[in-house]
Amino acid sequence: MLKITPYLGIMVLIVSIGGIFYPKLGYFLMLVFASLLIIAPFRGRWFCGNLCPRGSFVDFWLAPLSRKLRIPPLFRSMWLRVPIFVALMGFMIFRVIQTEGIVDKIGMVFVTLCILTTSIAILFGVIIAPRTWCSFCPMGTLQRAMGGKKYQLKVDTEKCIDCGKCQKVCPMQLSVNEILDKPDCIKCARCVEACPKHALSF
Questions:
Q1: How far is residue 156's CA from residue 165's CA, in Å, rounded to a whole number?
Q2: Sign (positive or negative) of CA dihedral 172, 178, 182, 186
Q3: Per-residue pLDDT tens for 129-157?
Q4: How far apart are the first and last CA of the chain?
Q5: Which of 40, 53, 105, 117 is the most exposed place for a label (fewest CB within 10 A)?
Q6: 48 touches 148 (CB < 8 A)
Q7: How confident is the model at residue 62 (pLDDT cuts 50, 70, 90)?
Q8: What angle do CA 138, 151, 191 make, to 5 degrees?
Q9: Whole-structure pTM value
Q10: What radius of gyration, in Å, describes the C-alpha atoms of the chain?
């Protein structure tokens, strides 16, 4: 996790609230899309754990209000994630086409998308767990598809004592030291920092 990560959540509020009055703020989402598309082929979902404003928002702003329950396995299923990806991307493209190229209208499409997805993230973040939205986030699913096998977390089984500390701090609620393939690992490195035996690394 980067030092700046906890503070990026403010961008969600700026775009969601400020964008209503100044639609051009919606174009910030284009920067987000471009950044994750550049990073994903090399580091998978690293963007999610280090640079994602909404990830920062739910981790450091919303977490105190969350019930912090287990994220239902259904939310990680591709049977749910792919339709959501198609639906949201289809909605965005359809709405952009309707703007007829008017700059402020295009910006408002992105602002609306930000408000919609943030509302869903807050709802599930409070009633279930902070990173519930991230389990089926369309951009997270895209990054998984592009580089889910890149920059994998490594576990030194000889050093690991199965203390469970890594799993307790994992925001995605992954079985950190029990699974080899972790395509939804967001590379936040909290598990690496929490391991008392230095058994984890990237």
A1: 15
A2: positive
A3: 999 999 999 999 999 999 999 999 999 99
A4: 12
A5: 105
A6: no
A7: very high
A8: 85
A9: 0.92
A10: 17
- Identify the residue whose tokens are 């289809």: 90
CB 152 within 8 A of CB 176: no
Residue in 1, 46, 38, 78 with CA at minimum distance from that of residue 148: 46
Give the CA distances from residue 28 to residues 11, 40, 122, in Å, rounded to whole numbers and listed in that order: 9, 18, 20
Q: Using alpha carbons, list the distances in angstroms from residue 70 to 49, 59, 116, 164.
A: 19, 15, 23, 15
- Name the β-bridge partners of 154: 201
Residue pair 31/53 in contact (Cβ under 8 Å)? The answer is no
Q: How many CB atoms lie within 10 A of CB 85?
A: 19
